[in-house]
Every structure is written in structure tokens, then in C-alpha cells.
Amino acid sequence: MDFLLPRQQDTGTAGTAGSQQHVQHAPYPPTTASLGGVPTVHTDIPITAVFLFLFICCAITHMTILQLNLKRGHKFLMSGMTFGFCMARITTCVMRIVWATRPRHIQIAIAAQIFVAAGVVLLFVINLIFTQRIIRAAHPHSGWHPFFNNFFKALYVLIVISLVMLIIANVQNFYTLNSHTKHVDRAIILYGGTFYAIMSFLPFPLVIGGLVIPRTTRVEKFGTGRFRTKIAILLTSAFLLCLGAAFRVGTNYKTPRPINDPPTYYSKACFYIFNFVVEIMVVVLYVVVRVDRRFHVPNGSKGPGDYSGANALELKERSVENSSRRVMSEEEVFDDDVVDEPRSEIVGELRGGAFVVNSTLGKPKADVL
Question: What is the Cα Rg of the chain in Å?
Fold first, then answer.
């Protein structure tokens, strides 16, 4: 970040000359360059305003899809998660616009950087959920195994813990001048970036491994569309997210450069391309291909056969079979007072050479005759 540090001011008196440096208080401005630098009014505000508009449109679209699906009983919470991501990016864009108008306000800079790092985590989680559903469909028994379920639960817990660590390290880095503490903060930031890059790449080995391992059962189809199309959608979004995450962590591993001499890979173009551009492409992809239909599974799925609905069909068939084999009660067999269901009786009579049909409901024949 290209923070403007306070300049040293010279003060002179009669017969003496000296200088006085402004005393800095926490939070302290950084001394090393970072991706994108400090936003400027003429360059960053117009670009950020465009992304702000795009994320607002995507947020409205995903929330509309979520509400329409809920009214039809079609539960797909990933639309709500994507809406949450768009709202986080809307906040990020607003913070960067405010930061551009107040480049010396370090608290705003901290908030903007935190939102940039934290928002994309929701997209990583969505792709992991899609990955889990594809593996369960391809290998129902191993995909629903407790070990596999606990593996994904552990990943979600680590994602949350790593996010908290990353936020704390970023904030603390602005509030300390201790070299050892800054070294620890940098190590945590590198760990967080590496971990999230691995999470963004994880769908590739899991899905490809699931396709290579021979299947013992047929694929349990879920949602709409072809199974191979679902895989292509997932790997495309994973590639885009992994591209951005790998670039960000790769540049962090480079030797820090002075704030007044940023490298080319820290340019504003790289910031917007490997952050907002790849993310907006993924969010739009989710809308265009309608992931809410393709990756939808029946509510309450808990084991093999639930995705395809085979278990529900089997339960229905058993219910029909049991009802057809129901044993009649003693009252129904021997009690003469049991009221029979009303029945229709059709009686005909000859009138004037024509046969006239009379219909009565639930009346004894003696009354008609």
C-alpha cells in the first residue's frame, strides 16, 4: 500500500536549527508495498463503481432466485451464501471508494483489506459443498461414510479458524512496531493465503479421483442436467478461484518491497483482475448455468439412495404393499351394525314404450321397488 508517511518538518530558532518529527501513534502506516496499493480518486473510484454495480445486480439476482425457490419448497441455501458474498463485496467496494477519498485514514484501510481477504471464503465453501455432492453421487457408500463426512466438517472448521487468525494478524500488523510480532503476523498471513489456495484447488483432486476410482454402483443423478456438465461447471469455477488465490499468495511469498518502490505484480490491474474479475465471473456463472437446479438435492438426504429418490420410492412402495395386506378387524368381519359405504343403484322402468333409468344413492332396493 502506498501510504503517505508524515514528512519531517524543520523548525528553526535564533542561532539554532533543528528538526522535529511527528510522533506516530497506532495504528501505524505500513512501510512495505501491497497488492493494489492505496486507491486513488481518478483511477480506482470509476473502476470500483463499476464492480459495485455488478455485485449489486448479482446480489439482487441470487436473492430473487432464493426467494422464488423457497416459495416452491425448493431449498437451496447456496444461493443465500452467494448473496452473502455479494454483500461482502459491496461493502468492500464502498470501503475502497471511501479509502480513495481519505488515503491517510488507516482504520478505513484496515477494514477494506479485511473485507477483500474474507469475502471470497464463501465461494470456496460453496465449491466444496458441490464437490461433496458429486462424490456422493458417484460413490454413494464411500461418499456417505462417516470418515468422509468428518473430513469435510474438519475443513469447514479450519476455514473459519484460519479466517479468524488471518483477520487478527492483519489488524495486529498495523498496531505494532515489534519486529518479532510482525514476523509472526507475516507467517500467519502466509499460512492463511496458502490454506485458502489449497481449498480453492481441492475440488480438482477430489473430483478427478472420484472419476478414476472404479464405481461399484450406478451414479445417483441429482438435480437437472447431465452429470458431466455439473463436473465441468464445478471445475471451471474452481479454476477461476484457484487462479486468484494462487496469484495472491504467490506474490505474498515474494520478498517485501519498499512502499515507494512497488513491483509490477502489485499493480492496480493485477488487483482487480485476480480479485474482482475472477469472482464476478464465478458469481455470474452460478446464475447462467442455474446451479440452484443442477446441484439441488432432496431435503433431508442422509445416505445412499437419497439423492436419486430411490429410498423415498421404496418407502412409498412398502407403504402401499402394507396397506393392501391389512388384516380386517373383528368388528369389520362380525359386526352387523357397521355402516356400509353409500352405493349407487340404477333402476329402470318401462314408461310409454321407453326405458327410463332412475339413479339413487345409498337407498335399499325395497324402497325403490
Answer: 33
